[in-house]
Amino acid sequence: MLQHGSDRVRESLGMFADELSAHRYLERLLWPNGVSCPRCKSTTRVGRLDGASTRLGTYKCYSCRKSFYLLHGTMMKSSHVPAHKWLQAVYLTDGGTKPVQAYHLHRILNVSLKTASSMMRRISQAAGEPRRPFSSSVADGSSAAPVRSRQSSERLHA
Fold first, then answer.
1. How far is Cα 46 from Cα 5, in angstroms, rounded to an integer?
2. Percent of the chain whose predicted confidence (pLDDT) is above 70
3. Smallest Cα–Cα separation from 85: which of 118, 127, 58?
4. Which of 48, 22, 21, 20 is nearest to 34 (CA)?
5. What distance in Å separates the CA atoms of residue 53 and residue 51, rounded to the nearest whole number?
6. What SS3 class is residue 61?
7. How far is CA 104 from CA 38, 61, 100, 119, in A?
8. What Pfam families does this protein's entry cite (predicted)?
9. How does residue 76 score in pLDDT terms, banded at 50, 70 and 90?
10. Nearest to 126 by CA among 105, 95, 101, 102
11. 123 CB contacts (<8 Å, ≥6 apart)?
């Protein structure tokens, strides 16, 4: 079982204490040979955008003249949860293989219970895929369970 108060867990979660350290870790993980554009695959003419209104982790490819974000193409794409909380959740769940309840994740990461369960679903789906753990097919949030509308349930009971 996961011991939340241990020094080892605190030290490991400290690696992802803020957004800057999380982004640096993800840059090394996703681009071991340097930053590359996801559209044109260029590695030579890519620059970091560091403006006051630019979010952390935004780059611009000067070959295809498009900007891209560090989390583009990952399970963290289109999420309002900061990257350091995502990495802490991945660490706490051992990449989706360790059973941790959403309630515990909600308490540890200081996110809502709904957010914690959504994060756990994305992590476990990514862990089940044979591709990279940060793949983009998980980011759409689709589930296998069909969703019935209220009208269709009223037809059944009428």
1. 42
2. 75
3. 118
4. 48
5. 5
6. strand
7. 35, 41, 7, 12
8. Zn_ribbon_IS1595
9. confident
10. 95
11. 75, 89, 90, 93, 95, 96
69: tokens are 């974000």
- Report the amino acid identity of residue 114: K
The rounded distance, in Å, linking the Cα atoms of 29 and 144 is: 30
Mean confidence (pLDDT) of the chain: 77
pLDDT value for 134: 53
Give the tokens for residue 142.
């689709």
DSSP 44: S
Paired tokens of 26:
């993800």
**pTM of the shown model:** 0.69
Query: Measured at the alpha carbon of residue 48, what is the angle toward residues 79 and 32, in degrees to the nearest 5?
Result: 80
Q: Which residue shows structure tokens 């990495």?
A: 87
